[in-house]
Structure formats: C-alpha cells, structure tokens
Write a structure and sequence with these properties.
Layout lengths: L2 H32 L4 H36 L16 H32 L7 H29 L3
C-alpha cells in the first residue's frame, strides 16, 4: 500500500466516523433523549454524551485536516498555488476552494458550539435555556450539511475537480 492510498484511506475513515457520529446524534440519540420528558435530565444526557464524544470528534477533525493537507500534496497542488487566485478559476481550484471554505465553516461552527456551551456551563447555567438548545441543534444540523457537502466535493476532487 502506498502512502498516497493510506492517506486517502485515513481521510475517508475519519470522514465516515465524523459524519456517522453526527447522524447517530441526530437520528438515534435525539429521539431517545427527547422521550425523557425532564428538560434538566435531557440537558445532562446531552452534556455527558457531548463530553464523551468530543475527543473522538475533535480527533476525527484533526485527522481530516492532517490527511487533507497530505492529499493536497498527492493531488500535485503546491502551497503557493493555494494563494494564486487564478488557480480558483480552474475546475480543480473551484472545487478545492469550495471544499476549503466548507472545512473552515465546520471548524468555526465547532468552535462556536464548544465555546457557547463552555461559557454557559462556566456561568453555572444548564443547557436547558431555549436559546442554547436551539443553537446546539442548528449548529449540529449545519455542521452535518457542510460535512456532507465537503465529502461530495472531496469525491469530485478525486475525479479531477
């Protein structure tokens, strides 16, 4: 197995893990948690699951970024090309540009979610407040959507843009 295929394989596994975790949270955990009736109990369950899955999700994101950089090398995209606006007028450049924007969006949304929840907990609050619950739901949905789009763009990159 060559380094190129190993890099791509690790990238795909990390993407599958990350998207799978997001789908599991939305499609399996959320319906179960919402049957719990008590808002404080639901908030506590989400907090515990979030703390348990956080290192795995952040690890998957870190692996995606690291292997993504490696995959750029194997796509023969030098660093200096990323700063050339003309590159983004090519099919490969356009696809890569959208993918990089999507990845940036995912990273920013992840930080927004983690910072908002950490600040709420630090103030002694619980995630039972409606605005924080809504923020958590929408950030999760948007992150999943961006993850699916970024995955599709990654597939396009493998076939030339």
């Amino acid at each position: 197995m060559t380094v190129k295929f190993l890099m791509l394989y690790l990238h795909l596994v990390a993407a599958m893990f990350w998207i799978g975790e997001m789908l599991t949270l939305m499609l399996i955990l959320t319906p179960v948690v919402y049957r719990q009736g008590d808002t404080a109990k639901r908030a506590q369950l989400y907090h515990e699951v979030g703390m348990q899955s956080r290192p795995w999700m952040l690890g998957a994101l870190a692996l995606l970024v690291a292997t993504g950089v490696g995959n750029l090398y194997f796509l023969n995209v030098p660093w200096k090309t990323l700063f050339d606006l003309g590159f983004y007028r090519t099919p490969l450049g356009r696809t890569l540009g959208w993918k990089l924007l999507g990845v940036l969006g995912i990273l920013l949304l992840t930080v927004l979610h983690d910072v908002a929840m950490a600040r709420l907990r630090a103030r002694g609050g619980t995630v039972t407040r409606g605005s924080y619950r809504a923020l958590g739901r929408w950030v999760g949905r948007l992150n999943l959507l961006l993850g699916l789009i970024v995955s599709w763009l990654g597939l396009r990159l493998m076939f030339g843009g």
